[in-house]
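Interim report to the steering committee. The following record documents the input for 21780_t:CDS:1 (101 residues).
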Amino acid sequence: MSTSPSTSTLVKRTFDQVEELSTVIIMIKKDYSYYLELSNWQLNTEVDEDIYVEAFPLLSDRIKFIEDLKNYYEARKTVFSRIERILSKEKDHESFDEIQK
């Protein structure tokens, strides 16, 4: 009976080590003074970039997520445009003023 770890255990350990290493590299790359000098939008961009790398280690997964997010926001914009058209048509309706009260 072998006491050596299984392949899946070794793979998980290796993945965990790579994940820890990428986090350490991000932390080494940027110290606290770096973050303090950023404006709000710059800080948001930096955090987003770090989050994408942490959440999606593979570049192809990051690209797919961003494409899906773009599609979501485009669909959201379309729905809001439809609602806006409906509301603008309803302004001419006689009951529109009553609803506003």
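The mean pLDDT is 75. The committee is asked to note this result when reviewing the revised timeline.
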